[in-house]
Design brief:
Helix content: 55-70%
Strand content: under 5%
Radius of gyration: 20 Å
Order of helices and strands: HEEHHHHHH
Shape: globular
CATH class: Mainly Alpha
Structural class: mainly alpha
Distance between the termini: 67 Å
CATH architecture: Alpha Horseshoe
Strand order of the largest sheet: 1-2
CATH topology: Serine Threonine Protein Phosphatase 5, Tetratricopeptide repeat
Number of domains: 1
Largest sheet: 2 strands, antiparallel
């Protein structure tokens, strides 16, 4: 957590970008604070993250979880739902925009869990302990998914068979 605190102080506008996924330093710090139970600090950091980038889906999710740890009010529901929906939509976008590179959530496990959570939120009674556990799982899986995709893409780029023109090729030409 100290590392993220120092990074946020030295470069408060730092944003990690991988492909089209963006996560600001304040989100990293807020998630670390959340992870050690410093919910008031986490709330402040995550609100700051959203003031910098209102589309930061992990900041929304973890702000919702932070609020839910304090009270199960409408703001906790709104932020959790917004974060989950944004992550679901982003994963759907990545799959539909890159149909031949099925890197992101290829077995749809993350999206399936998000859908379950969103259904629970839209129901009458929310099982808060279950929702919190599940949404935390989604947050961890998204972080791990970024690393999995990065490794898979690096592996493909190192694979010489991936590049056109490396190896035997056949072609047909028509000349005039």
């Amino acid at each position: 957590m100290g590392y993220f605190q120092r990074a946020a102080e030295s470069d408060p506008n730092y944003v990690f970008i991988y492909d089209t996924f963006r996560e600001g330093i304040w989100t990293y710090l807020g998630r670390a604070q959340y992870g050690v139970g410093r919910f008031d600090e986490a709330r402040h950091s995550l609100e700051r993250a959203l003031s910098v980038n209102q589309d930061d889906s992990l900041a929304k999710l973890y702000l919702g979880l932070t609020l839910a740890r304090r009270s199960h009010d409408s703001q906790a529901v709104k932020q959790t739902q917004s974060g989950l929906q944004a992550l679901y939509d982003w994963l759907e976008y990545m799959q539909s925009s890159r149909p031949y590179t099925d890197y992101w959530d290829p077995l749809r496990q993350i999206r399936s869990e998000i859908k379950t959570d969103l259904d629970m939120i839209s129901g009458k009674d929310i099982d808060w302990p279950k929702l919190i556990d599940s949404a935390e799982w989604v947050g961890r899986q998204m972080e791990e998914e970024i690393e999995r995709v990065r490794r898979d893409e690096e592996r493909r780029l190192r694979n010489k068979d991936f590049f056109p023109g490396s190896g035997v090729g056949l072609g047909v030409g028509i000349g005039f």
